[in-house]
Design goal:
mainly alpha; elongated; 56% helix
Length: 121
């Protein structure tokens, strides 16, 4: 359906402009992620713990990023804007290794659903 539109013309034309991309990930990155889905995934995690203001804000920043971009390299959790809350990003805001692993697992699951693989954080 996508390749048959008059603007794109063919799969070859699409690949010439955008390269060989996974359509599932391309669409996710183009339209982002449903905010409700992102919040729901993290709400399950947040309800099991008592977190501080910076920790909750950090998770909200992840939700904002996923909503806008659809996928996220877990390595981004150690870069701006995530380092604005703590210079060490995820590791600075969350000191418990199981919290860090759970957050990375949630982000990785969204990437997996879009058939996108990134290196380890």
């Amino acid at each position: 359906m996508l390749y048959g539109t008059s603007i794109i013309e063919s799969r070859e034309q699409f690949q010439q402009v955008y390269g060989a991309v996974n359509i599932k990930s391309f669409i996710r990155q183009l339209v982002g992620l449903d905010r409700k889905a992102a919040k729901q995934a993290f709400n399950k995690y947040l309800q099991n713990q008592n977190f501080g203001t910076n920790q909750i804000r950090f998770v909200e920043m992840i939700i904002d990023y996923l909503t806008q971009n659809g996928v996220m390299d877990p390595g981004r959790l150690y870069e701006a804007p995530f380092t604005n809350l703590h210079q060490n990003g995820l590791d600075g805001v969350f000191s418990n290794d199981s919290d860090i692993e759970e957050i990375i697992a949630i982000v990785t699951e969204f990437n997996k659903n879009a058939d996108v693989k990134f290196g380890a954080a």
